[in-house]
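User: Hi! I'm working on a homework problem where we have to compare a predicted structure to a textbook description. Could you give me the structure for the chain below?
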Amino acid sequence: MGLSHFVYNFTTFVKGHRHLPLHHPDTLPLHLIVICLRTVGNQMKKILKAIGRFMKRPVAIGGAGIFAIVGIAVGVVGYIGFHTALEMTTSTEFCISCHTMRDNNFEEYKTTIHYTNPVGVRAGCPDCHVPKAGWPLYKAKILAARDVWGELTGSIDTREKFEQERLRLAKIVWADMKANDSAQCRSCHSFEAMDFEHQKPNAAKMMQKAMKDGDTCIDCHKGIAHHLPDMASGYKSLFKNIAAAAPDNRSADTLYAMSTTKLFAEKPEGDGGRAAGNILPLTEVHVVERNGDWMKVRIDGWMQEGMERVLVKEMGRRLFLATVTQEMAEKAKVLETKTDPDTDLNWKEGEITVWTRIDDFTSEKTALAGYGEEMYSAACGACHSAPAPDHFLANQWMGIVKDMKGNTALSKEEVRYLQNYLQLHAKDMPKQS
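Assistant: Happy to help. Predicted structure tokens:
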């Protein structure tokens, strides 16, 4: 929506609501502006009268003096008007004067402990979203113009539009709170003032861990005052885009699996016969031959002696690339055998050549990594601070994902993808992975 639409909306708003009383919620933004202008006007009248009385005194002053007096007057009026407007727009009442805020965020907020609680302390919109003073306050006011623009141009003027933008808008707020160490939260709450003995055991444990690790409030308390967005919508949208673009990204010699896909010893006829195993998400394959919807690929990896049916990314690290039948495993080409000094287990470096469908692959490695990162943030970063993937070893991630998957809404396939993503970026994995 362009400027003309905005002007039309605003003009229509003024003409259609000027007859309504001041307290009416639909006219509050307009009347606040009018009040601000009246306040500035009244102050200007008083100052001009004072200047007039001063000028009538029988004291000769030069032109420079007049300009100085007028300059001071304008400065004073500007300062008073600016801070009057600042105060009047820093209130919950002003925030909910826009129907988008009133009908969506405010109704959610009214059901939370920040609105009603046993001790009768209420945190309003400015307490959580507006810095107290200085440049952060002015910056917040300037950036808030985006919300007004969105309201007037109709980008979030319905419930459906608001829900579509909720995740994006929430991420902006979360990022700001992360950057300022949840400054608004800390104006009321602090680790130093907490009596952990009177908290629930699990809450006390999490709070003390957060204090030790240097976490900030928003790391664990997303959704404390408003409904959480559909966290899955972000990464699912990314995957949809990757899949849509995949047909244009399959001409490269090196491709990556977008999901678990079947592999075959020979090119199947028709839709395929009995599979000889599976290629796991994010597995890198090297194209040997293309034939219609099928391609012959080579997969490089490691097999533990006695467990040759599983191909892994690196020796000693359980990052699965493919699982195959015993017959297929016997066809693997062994390049070298090594002993893992940490476990004394023997490992075979080798390769397998298989057939698979081309439509499950893409060359967009960076996009796939972005999908994994978004999934990790959505699934594991909503209720606690998610550690960086390189915080743990590849094999440690297996146990962590197994323990935590029950706390997520991820499908079995998404869990498999997430585990491989985290393992690929683990502390002990080569950086080129």
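For your comparison, note the following. The beta strands are 254-257, 261-263, 277-279, 284-291, 294-304, 307-314, 317-324, 333-339, 346-357, 361-362. The longest strand covers residues 346-357. Good luck with the assignment!
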